[in-house]
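The protein record now logged underneath.
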Amino acid sequence: MANPVGEDSWLAYVEERRPADLEERVKVVELFKKAIGAEPGSLKIWLAYCEYFWSLFNDCQNPEAGWSEEEQQLGRELFSFELALSLWSEGYEAIKYRLNDSHEFWNRWVSIEQEQLARSRNPVGVRRITHLFRDRLQIPHATWDETSQMFSSFLSTYNNAAYESEFKEVTAAAQPAKDAYNDRERRELELNKLARSGDEQAYKTALRDYLDWEIIQTTSPRNHPKDPVLAITLALALFSRALTGALAFEHDIWMNYMVYLSTLRDLAPSHMPLPDSLNVLQRATSHCPWSGDLWSRYILNAEEAGWAFHDVEAIKHAATNAKALDKNGMTGVIDMYAAWCGYLKRTAMNPNAPDDAVDIADVGLLAALEDVQLWGERLYKEEYRGDPNYRLERILIQYLTEKKGEVEEARNIWKNLADKALFANSYDFWLNYYLWEMMIYAARPRQRSPTPATPANGVKPVRVPAHATDVLLRALQTKGLDWPERVMEVCHQHCNDYEQPPTLRRALDTIHKTRRGIEKRRARERAEAESAYAAQAQAAQQAAAAEVVDVSMSESPSGSKRKRADTMEEATTAITNKRPKNADVNGTDAAASDQSLKRDRENTSIMVRNLPPDVTQTALKKYFRDYGHILNLTTKKEADGSTTSALIEFESPEEMRSALLRDQKYLGESQISVKPGAGLTIYVANYPPTADEEYIRTLFKDCGEVFSIRFPSLRFNTHRRFCYISFSDPESAAKATRLDGKVLEGKFHLLSKYSNPTGKKRREGAVAEGRELRIKNLDFKSSEDDLRVLFSRYGKVESINLLKNLKGQNRGTAFAVMETKEQAEKAAELDKTKLGSNIIEVELSKESNYKPTASTKTGSHSAASSPAPSTDADATMATDDSGPSGREIQARSMAILDLPDTVNDARVRALAEKHGDIVKVVLRPDHQGAIIEYANVATVGKAMMALNGFEIDAGKKIRVGSVEELFKTKAEKPGNKLMKPPMAIRRPVASGQKPKQRAGLGYGGGAKTEANGDGADTGSTPKSNADFKAMFLAGKQ
């Protein structure tokens, strides 16, 4: 069995031992020694070890302990009084600089010493304990005052005559220790407060800041501690405390510790002992076996320490045998192998190396390349392309070039890399290749002969770097090169400096052709992007014209703008009424909503526990399929990895109840538990818009184990902000409901209630209460005051919202909110009356849940953004002369692709604005993405490089691309792999006839002629903007 890792694991491992005889007790002592070797700074382990050893000393002295006479006699030799006190002293030396809790160990030790002195009362014991107190009071610790009081009581009892002199001397000597603790007291108190609150993440953050502060105090040239040795000792003790506690499995803290130790070797006083870096690295790699940085550092330090080859090789084997090395992908694997190959290369190139060093390097370097390739293919299958930085290949090239002199072999490696798009598209690769060729050219001596041969044609050959020229010309032929301008510049300069006129001429021709091709390609890409942007604008205009009779709620004063100011109303509405109310938007969607309302997950689900750890969903479906149809199945492996749990949803409550018959039955060798899933799921809403799954898990972590989190699809309503959280047990769900009403970030009142699909509550707000009126076809000169005067005849007017365009002009539409529903119904009689020069239309506003897109703008950049689509024709056709052109907007816009339809625009904005100022974000879940318009063009490239491949949700990585590419992407079709497959129906056909092919959904078998009989296909020609404007104007008449 592998050794435990971490102080808690070691203690649990030792506590499992129940020694029944002396031999078993000795084995437990040996286990404690191993634990101390693995965690030398752990107060918990030292205290448990010393307490256990002290109990053995007492038991072997006590006949009533149950030991045999022989065991007692041997025990007195093995667990003597001197060894016990020596162990307490050794443990104290290891942990005495732990400022926060070293007193726990000290107090126990000194109490044992005082108990022994109370029996003997000899002067030697008094001097010994006095010395212990003197030493303790000169060590900084949190309970210095309590220790001083203990010393005072001790002197009063055993040495009252020397009380004043002793205390005066000790107080003076302890002043540096008190000053050192005072400098750190604020940070220690903060850590204690966070530890008591149970906020683990905040505790870790504060501890990290504390470590950084200690490093600065001891390494920065601006800081000059009074006692450098004490300052460094306290910093090392804090690292030891962190790495045996809260940060034991944080690889970056281990790396910080190693760098700090490396720095101290040059800064610390020569007489000050420092921890052995190799021992630290051995512990670091056992705690964080996935860290390639730590493994590579381990190999480097072993090489620097002069370890033998087989010892360094043992480190490499330990790394490859660590199952977690590829936990974060191939990065850790390549880092470790790069360190190993660097070691092999340096050893072989060392003139004092053993004879077999070159042979080992020949085999080891090639084997490492092969191992990494196989590892990558095993991890990523055919998607693995190699290391983008080709580190192992560069080490092998250097070795072949400088040690073996095999230039052609090294050149073949460069050529093989150049054949792969991963490297060929990088200008950095080609420049490195070129520089290597130039190094080879410069390293080869000129041909010198005492009797040079005369050429047949009388012309002496000129020596030129032909291989380097070929590299640059080949780079220019790569179509996907990321920075061709840089390569063209280098090629031009190189040929000018080294090549003959014919070659220079051909190179200039190639550069000219390449530049023209790049310009054409980029012009084509710009045109395509502009076309896509125009198509987007046209689609928006079409949507606006089609919905002119029903302005969306986002333009209503009780719509999204008002909801952002009153988020509790949005949350309450969402929980009490989950299905869309606007059946006019899409009949199919309304029907689907009715169906989803009938789906009662809370009463049709079961929780299955104690499943085998390697159970598959297929096996679970087969196991439960006799009890009903499974709609959804979610599995989760338990933290210890020994079992798996599953939450299974059936089609009806009856099927769920029948599946309970499987309770306490066996699946393989595991006896499973099957319980109803009722009371496990809560409905959560009104959290911050930028919250993701990690935020939700952190918010509810103190309630219990979160089994799964479901976010809703935003495809038909981008303003939905709620989720369902399923807990592993009802008690955790009950605790989660107590967070209902909690204020987040000072303004969001969290809603956390049991999920209840049948719960209904009437919507609130002016629209739901029938108090809001929509006024259309307004005269563009009409003002809010005009409308207020007009509608005040029918009652009290609460608000008037007159929609305006970017220029501040009236768009011809407004919303009025009356005090009561009756007043609003009376005011609706103003329909078809004249206001100014126009006949206005007045009607009660209708609720709408259909919001397929979301658009947010930054106030400081709103004037520079593209105008939002308007439902008013005249306002839409009026352009803002001061606004940017379509080409400018396209140049600074980008699209995010493969965006899950559960991610809202707030999360997209939070992710994108890290890279620059944003003008506008448009969420398009109907195309699986979003459009981001930045304030300047330079930001777009940086953002695209940073966001491409970013994992926005677990297992879901986004891509970046153009707006045109976004609109070519269709929405992901909702589907359920667990749904029943449709049955194929085959009908017999007449003999000799072929079965008629059935066309797909939406496909017409033939063109239909119009009723007028002219057969014209009115839908064959796409409508232009003018056509849609004419349709719009016709609809207003």
About this structure: Residues 546-598, 859-882, 976-1023, 1031-1037 have pLDDT under 50 and may be disordered. The first strand starts at residue 605 and ends at 611. Residues 221 and 267 are 10 Å apart (CA to CA).
